[in-house]
Specification:
Distance between the termini: 49 Å
Helix content: 40-55%
Structural class: alpha/beta
CATH class of the largest domain: Alpha Beta
CATH architecture of the largest domain: 3-Layer(aba) Sandwich
Bound molecules: ligand AN7
Number of domains: 2
Number of strands: 10
CATH topology of the largest domain: Rossmann fold
Strand order of the largest sheet: 1-2-10-7-8-9
Shape: globular
Strand content: 5-15%
Largest sheet: 6 strands, mixed
């Protein structure tokens, strides 16, 4: 029987583990890389892949970093973890906290996080504080709080989060046999673009790949501090996960962009929704709006002067579509039809179409 041991065990040689690090796992990582059937070919790219990070145990890529951060917190005998979150980090922290007996405290911007994510934190039994302010306000508060109380901060400023998230880059190289030409990735607090770039560099330095990708990051147009070159006080986008005006890893994202000869650009909410709907209706892939920003960005690449012929591209689909039922319901054009339960009634209805 093949038993997947989780990503700390699988990638221990490349992770900051000590002899005392517990190899904890909820089965995170090992996510599918799926070839695009329509979206890639529609702009002449036959080798577009989607990395389905929504297949992680709590439905987002955050589990990769969280498992590493929680393992190190346990090693250091911490009993409490804390984070600010646009939703996915809080879901992930709460899950690992529940499983490993840590008290989880999450601060979220009131009324701003997707319902599925909030329900996850509730289900896992975290203590949830909804703050009257933005994610950036909640994050500033959490940073002050950990100066005063003995709690392990598990936002991506925690270096172990970044380390764990590097494993997604390892998986891509392990699957494709080389690094792709381009990575398209949504950018919020900018931890993930930092992690991927570190991960590809790590594998390159170890001779596991002979090439490096160009990192193509995308922010929502109404929440694009890195692209604009200044903080956004009142970020606005339908992609609530990346509604962030002052990213913690801002400088590291610029470094990833510049070292990789990549770019960080914007996508509008309309472009995000277009990609979101195409992914579900044409490709059968239901991701959350922030993840669709990666694909919206991919679709902009020809306009940004990028030649995609013969290129391999991976779009990182960071979170599951079920996380945000409100957006999904608003965008639906399918109507649910009411019918009596007998076959004649069903047939009669079907004849009308
Ligand atoms: C689905 O959960 O910041 O650029 O608090 O949930 O590494 O921040 C989430 C971010 C992309 C952006 N896609 O990644 C949080 C949080 C999804 C996300 C991002 C997030 P970063």
């Amino acid at each position: 029987m093949f038993y997947y041991p989780g990503l700390i065990n699988r990638y221990k040689e490349y992770l900051p583990v000590t002899e005392n690090t517990p190899f904890i796992s909820l089965g995170e990582g090992n996510t599918p890389l799926v070839l695009s059937t329509t979206i890639g070919p529609s702009i002449g790219c036959e080798k577009l892949f989607f990395k389905l990070e929504g297949c992680n145990p709590t439905g987002s890529f955050k589990d990769r970093g969280m498992v590493m951060a929680v393992a190190r917190a346990l090693e250091q005998k911490k009993t409490r973890i804390v984070c600010a979150s646009t939703g996915n980090t809080s879901a992930s922290a709460s899950a690992y906290g529940a499983r490993y007996g840590l008290k989880s405290l999450v601060l979220v911007p009131a009324g701003e996080i997707a319902l599925g994510k909030l329900l996850q934190a509730m289900a896992y039994g975290a203590r949830i504080l909804a703050v009257d302010g933005s994610f950036d306000d909640a994050f500033a508060t959490v940073r002050s709080l950990v100066e005063i109380m003995d709690m392990e901060l598990v936002n991506s400023v925690n270096p172990y989060r970044i380390e764990g998230q590097k494993t997604a880059a390892f998986e891509i190289v392990d699957t494709l046999g080389e690094a792709p030409d381009f990575i398209c990735i949504p950018v919020g607090n900018a931890g993930n673009i930092t992690s991927y770039w570190d991960g590809f560099k790590t594998y390159y330095e170890h001779g596991k790949s002979v090439n490096l990708p160009r990192m193509m990051g995308f922010q929502a147009a109404g929440a694009a501090p890195i692209v604009n070159g200044e903080k956004v006080d009142d970020p606005e986008t339908i992609a609530s996960a990346i509604k962030i005006g002052n990213p913690a890893s801002w400088g590291k994202a610029l470094k990833a962009r510049d070292e990789s000869n990549g770019l960080i650009d914007v996508v509008t909410d309309d472009q995000i929704i277009n990609a979101y709907l195409r992914l579900s209706r044409e490709e059968g892939i239901f991701c959350e709006p922030a993840s669709a920003a990666a694909v919206a960005g991919f679709l902009r690449l020809p306009d940004l002067g990028v030649d995609l012929s013969d290129k391999t591209v991976v779009c990182i689909l960071t979170g599951n579509g079920l996380k945000d039922p409100d957006v999904s319901e608003k965008q639906a054009t399918v109507e649910i039809e009411i019918v009596d339960h007998d076959v004649e009634s069903v047939l009669k209805l079907l004849q009308n179409h």
